[in-house]
Design a protein that fits this description.
The strands form five sheets. Strands 1, 2, 3, 4, 5, 6, 17 and 18 form an eight-stranded mixed beta sheet that branches. Strands 7-16-8-9-12 form a five-stranded parallel beta sheet, covered by helices on one side. Helix content is 31%, strand content 16%. Helix 1 packs parallel to helix 16 (437-457) and helix 16 runs parallel beside helix 18 (511-519). It is an alpha/beta fold. It has helices at residues 18-29, 46-49, 61-64, 70-75, 85-98, 188-200, 224-232, 234-242, 262-273, 279-282, 292-309, 313-319, 337-340, 387-390, 402-405, 437-457, 467-481, 511-519; strands at 9-14, 34-37, 105-106, 111-117, 122-127, 132-140, 162-165, 180-184, 203-208, 215-216, 333-334, 346-350, 356-359, 363-366, 369-372, 375-378, 393-395, 424-426, 462-465, 529-532. It contains 18 helices and 20 strands. It binds NADP nicotinamide-adenine-dinucleotide phosphate. Residues 56-58, 145, 151, 153, 166, 184-190, 192, 209-210, 330, 351, 356, 379-382, 491, 496 line the site of NADP nicotinamide-adenine-dinucleotide phosphate.
Length: 537
């Protein structure tokens, strides 16, 4: 598109997931001329693509949804403490319609490139079909888990049966009834999927490379009394999420592990095991993620639970992680996961004992031989945090390509801007606070919206992060990650993607402190941002 042509919008938001929906609303309310483009056919983002059986929240529903509209809080009734994919997708459609956002959304627009025109500091966003839109500002709300990853196991293309990735599940559903099914992977998606497939499949074989520390989600239907209680305490729920370390509703324990006797510790672990969701991590002793001995003890407690739930001791041992402690990789939450391995139609293949060799026309070959399958499910994860941004050709100042700039490691300013990419914002990408993502994303969207309002008020149309501020922030991201016990082989470190720099990708600092820091930015005149006017308007 030639320089000087009219803009299609002042701001273009990319992605209609949790962050894009909120960003579109905030910017429109603030009077910006804004459009949103989305690759799918409807809203939902992660909750649009990940419609595999068993997909659900593991943050409490009422802590995951939006808090900005009293009307939405009043009108929407969550059905389960941890909503399933269908309920969440309905919720995001409800919000979109309620706020009349659809008129500014364009679907089936899969972005291929985002290119800066340095002559007038505008961006051209081009879809895979060649359609191009031009705007002054771009907000990438492309999510942290939106690029499915298929490992390069030889032969994948020659398989003749049905194959699906959990992150790209067909809308029409998959019929497992009586079929012989393989699931590759044992991360959070597989842990949710496996018990559901086990109920339907004739035979299910799980191909596990690394077991995870899974613990009960303890989901349930929300009763009328609970619903009334939730509605009456939304302010409190919101406050406790925003004043917590990672945005969850659970309160942190002030105690250290070895302040208590063994009986007291075991009593707390037992209580936590029966509490909802991430209480096991967050309401645990405060040194569980920093003191190796403390972590080892809680891991042993969970190991005992696994042994008590899996009938075959040899299978139980294979399901117990040996290379990392609880919480050192993102711990999945489960419902009947371990019991699935007691079913006669379910088998576990330990890929450490018998590694994958190839995918064949009929199925999967390991060093123990070939098995034929009707369906293979790839629960093999995502190119997390950066994948959605490095997948596209994002081209900034001097022709620099974001993918290449980040190859040795991510550098950002507050996870919101990138050096050399003026007027380009991230509503949720690398350096986003790890935890209850909607709460972290909300901070980012509020920051970006406030920054654009500030620039408008002060007549600035070019915004770029200061290189020094970027370097300092990136150092902080790495420094805070060093405090906690974290496994090297986690997707949080990009370790699941061959060739990706191994570095901690989210921000491991406190959400409360980060929120306070971001809230103070307007009165400080947005430090770390260099404002200007375009070379040519
Ligand atoms: P994941 O945690 O990255 O798990 C991918 C699985 O595929 C791992 O078990 C991995 O084994 C396996 N794998 C990858 N390459 C392989 C290979 N070449 N051979 C054999 N196995 C291979 O992905 P995910 O389960 O989709 O979960 C990703 C994240 O999404 C979660 O951590 C969570 O944050 C989010 N999630 C959230 C929810 C929720 O909120 N309820 C649900 C699902 C997912 P290795 O471990 O050995 O690499």
């Amino acid at each position: 598109m030639a320089t000087g042509q009219a803009l299609d919008a002042e701001v273009i938001v990319i992605g209609a997931g949790v962050s894009g929906i909120y960003e579109l609303h905030r910017l429109r309310e603030s009077g910006f001329d804004v459009r949103l483009v989305e690759g799918g056919t409807n809203v939902g983002g992660t909750w649009y693509w990940n419609r595999y059986p068993g997909a659900r929240f593991d943050s409490e529903s009422y802590s995951y949804g939006y808090f900005f509209s009293q009307e939405i809080l009043d009108e929407w009734n969550w059905q389960e403490h941890f909503a399933g994919q269908a309920e969440t997708e309905s919720y995001l459609n409800f919000v979109t319609d309620k706020l009349d956002l659809r008129r500014d959304m364009r679907f089936n627009f899969r972005v291929k490139s985002i290119v800066l025109d340095e002559s007038d500091d505008t961006w051209t966003i081009t879809a895979e079909d060649g359609t191009a839109l031009r705007s002054r500002f771009v907000v990438s709300a492309t999510g942290v888990l939106s690029v499915p990853y298929w490992p390069s196991i030889p032969g994948r293309e020659r398989y003749q049966g049905e194959a699906h990735h959990t992150g790209l599940w067909p809308k029409s559903g998959v019929d497992f009834a009586g079929k012989k099914v393989a699931v590759i992977g044992s991360g959070a998606s597989a842990v949710q999927l496996i018990p559901e497939v086990a109920k339907q499949a004739g035979e299910l074989v799980v191909f596990q490379r690394t077991p995870n520390w899974n613990s009960p989600l303890n989901n349930g239907t929300i009763t009328d009394e609970e619903q009334a209680e939730i509605k009456a305490t939304y302010d409190e729920i919101y406050r406790s999420c925003m004043n917590s370390f990672a945005g969850f509703v659970h309160s942190a324990s002030p105690k250290r592990t070895f302040d208590d006797s063994k009986e007291e510790r075991w009593a707390l672990y037992e209580k936590l095991y029966h509490q909802k969701g991430f209480a096991k991590l967050i309401s645990n002793y405060r040194d569980m993620m920093t003191n190796r001995e403390a972590n080892a003890e809680f891991s042993e407690f969970i190991a005992e639970k696994i042994r008590s739930r899996v009938n075959d001791p040899a299978v139980a041992e294979k399901l117990i992680p040996k290379d990392h402690g609880f919480g050192m990789r993102r711990p999945p939450m489960e419902t009947g996961y371990y019991e699935a391995f007691n079913q006669p139609n379910v088998t576990l293949v330990d890929l450490r004992e018998t590694p994958l060799v190839t995918i064949t026309e009929a199925g999967i070959e390991t060093t123990a031989g070939e098995q034929a399958f009707d369906i293979i499910v790839w629960a093999t994860g995502f190119d997390g945090f950066t994948g959605a941004l490095t997948r596209m050709d994002v081209i900034g100042e001097g022709g620099r390509v974001l993918r290449e700039q980040w190859a040795p490691g991510v550098v950002s300013y507050l996870g919101a801007m990138v050096p050399g990419f003026p007027n380009f914002f991230l509503a949720g990408g690398p350096h986003l606070i790890a935890g209850n993502f909607p709460r972290a994303i909300e901070i980012m969207v509020d920051y970006i919206t406030g920054l654009l309002e500030y620039a408008r008020e002060h007549g600035h149309t070019v915004l770029a992060p200061d290189e020094e501020a970027c370097a300092r922030w990136t150092e902080e991201v790495h420094a805070v990650a060093d405090i906690a016990l974290m496994a090297e082989n986690s997707w949080f470190r990009g370790a699941n993607i061959p060739g990706k720099a191994n570095e901690y990708l989210p921000y491991a600092g406190s959400l409360t402190k980060f929120r306070q820091r971001m809230a103070a930015m307007p009165e400080q005149g947005y430090p770390g941002i260099v404002f200007g006017t375009p070379a040519l308007v």
